[in-house]
Amino acid sequence: MAIELKRRNVVIVGLGAAGGVAALPLARAGLDVVGLEAGTWLAPEDFAPDELRNNVRGWPQAVQKANREIPTHRRNASAPSSPRAAIHPMMNAVGGTTLHYWGQSWRLNPWDFKVVSETRRRYGASRIPAGSTAEDWPFGLEELEPYYDIVEYELGVSGKAGNIQGRIDARGNIFEGPRRREYPMSPLRGSGFTEMVADAARKLGWHPFPGPAAITSRAYDGRPACAYHGFCARGGCHIRSKSSTAVTTIPKAQQTKRFEVVTEAVVTTIEVDRNGRVRGVNYLKGGMEYFQPADVVLLASYVYENVRLLLVSKSAAFPNGLSNNHGQIGRHYFSHNQGASVTALFPRDLNTWYGLPAQGVAIDDWADDNFDHGKLDFIGGGNLWVYSDRRPIAAAEMSTFGRAPRWGSAWKAFVRQNADRWNTAYLQKTTLPYEDNYLDLDPVVKDPLGFPVIRITADFKENDRRLAAFIQDRMAVWFMAAGAVAVERTPIGTMGPTTHAYGGTRMGDNPDTNVVNRWGFSHEAPNLGILGASVMGTSGARNPTLTVQALAWRTADYLVRNWKAVTK
Amino acid sequence: MSRDDSADARGLSRRELLARTVRFGAGAIVPVEMLVRRMPDNAAPAAAAANQAAAREPLETLTAAETATLDAIAARLIPTDENGPGATEARATRYIDRALGGALADAREAYRTGLAAVDAWARASKSAPFAQLSAADQDAILTQMESNTAAGFTPDAATFFNLVRMHTIQGTFCDPYYGGNANFVGWDLIGYPGIRLAATPDDQRMDRRPARVRRSAYDHAMFAKKRPARARLGRIDEPWRSS
Ligand SMILES: Cc1cc2nc3c(=O)[nH]c(=O)nc-3n(C[C@H](O)[C@H](O)[C@H](O)COP(=O)(O)OP(=O)(O)OC[C@H]3O[C@@H](n4cnc5c(N)ncnc54)[C@H](O)[C@@H]3O)c2cc1C
Ligand code: SF4
Q1: Which ligand 1 atom minimizes the distance to the CA of A265?
Q2: Which of A290, A316, A430, B109 is deepest in the core (most CB within 10 A)?
């Protein structure tokens, strides 16, 4: 029998990017908040600059929960299962994946909220890809802007504004939507290489700018400036310069004394009463089972676990899984079209051994609807990102561009000369949901506790493939303009488990096609809130996390302002 | 030897260690081995002596016969040649041997059957175990494995070839903490300037080369106490079952 604990106002499941942010406005408002986190605290000493551990073997979390529940994947409902991924990329620890993420902190652009209506208006309804279930967001950028602003300042984001209240500044992103003020910190510095590449973009008539990063470019909030040390990707920060929630919003929330963090607490199911309201959650810790009652449950355990916890939480009120009486849990799933990239070989050493993936130069000229698609056969676009980051094992595993064998003396001579002469861009592209891309429970594969893991049924569609080829061509042009002697395109890959998963509990006004309302609360179970990219219906051409965090703050803020209505 | 004078965990600079080794002459093998033992995670400080010492270290996982075959493969994948030391000097095999008892334990069986298959194929096609063949014959066999035309492998030769290639690269270019990249020969080969906890703007200029730092991540005091777990990934204690 589970041990029943003292009732709380709010229980947050998972303290990563989303849950770690939501805790702060709730605690500041004086609510009694508990955060249940499957992982432990990690300290700066845990974040050794160790490529083998971090990048080759996957992060050895203190708790390997995520690795026990790696989703399975198949391309479509009649395809066989793809080989199971070996490592789950997400983190189990206080701070979640913000501990070892890259820290790029993008706002979405105005078009991303209105993909359907804007495409219809500019090109006609026939240009919405067949089978896509995309909808406009229930609100536009202007409604999220205040929350972007709050989280940029609470977390600490570096960057250069390109549009302050309509005033365009070419040192920032001229395509971004209006923001109320400048970033809290100036952008991260460039490196010799990124500056060379930015110059080449300017010569092409494009508009390069330094990307925004949840990383300190100067001392901020008691944390030192980033040391550009080269082990940021999949490595935590040894000096707390990466603005993970573990060093920002979570400790701030704890300081209010209204927020308790319970670590090594693995939530298994959500309990529901006869009226379809959530009562609290069950969790395991130290071999014991607990029931944590709460007025409100906020689910923030990343897309796959959000969906799984809902689907396994069956009750009389919700026989097909919590909040699933409209059959929408798991629908409108997609993973970001971020695979198809371009690798370039240069005739000189680039000296990119140091830096970080957030230290780079971006191009938005080919993103979203920033260029005319009238004569093109796809909608959407991509953000081109070139950055300074290299480590020795990856350097030696470089492509030989067809110029050398894969081993032996000739290979050795090749890598000796070229290990520091190549660069791979990061190309993130608009991705849309489709009718036949979805998540459900795997009928066979279970985690060690006996719960089914998530099964991903998804594949890239024609729009994704055409867009990818177009963006790769743009990137190849840019690299060649910067002096590359050869370029190679990497494949688009599959839609297996990913760091940029979206949908599954989509947000929208229509309960027939969406799980949560415009505030992030379930249409069916009104005191259940859902945080994370599982609520997002479009991706934009940029990483999700700042949007996830702005939405999390907004949901928490709504709860504070409407406490009685939500909990009645 | 790199021009690095940074002090190691015991407060001795590499140059001092080298000097000691030289002063002790042949007898240095023993003290250096003890040094290596006491700091098992440090790169061996003095190239030649440490290599000899390490050559006597008992293997942790592989048998002597398996090691002979694996040594020979690694020596052809990343050869010692006019471009300097290769996988042999980096002690990539020591890395693989240790890893197969820990993080790569899932691959132990693949090595057992794969290395046996390499030798069986070598005997069948060239009438001698792999390690005793000429470099040209060894290369011919590796080429057959890479192109998947060698028989007798499970699931197939190319899979095993790619596994060994990947691990040999890891063992040559990894942090020496893991037993490979001895004396930083891998990092020197590709010009990696080494692990820094902070990089200056000058360290990121294209017209300069940062000075080489030759230290393991775990030589830095702040990480010295927090060694990465050697347990297999995914097999670390489940907290909800541990009490
Ligand atoms: C290497 C890498 C680089 C990335 N780079 C970027 C980037 O530059 N910019 C960007 O925007 N995004 C980036 N991302 C993506 C980003 O990390 C995610 O978008 C973000 O972390 C998602 O937030 P989340 O809160 O939903 O999930 P997480 O941050 O993963 O947090 C989920 C938390 O829930 C906990 N949890 C899970 N299940 C349970 C359970 N059953 N009970 C209790 N707790 C549970 C987990 O332990 C975890 O702490 C990157 C990801 C990776 C892996
Ligand atoms: S690059 Fe900067 S933010 Fe990233 S881990 Fe290093 S010091 Fe921290």
Answers
A1: 43
A2: A430
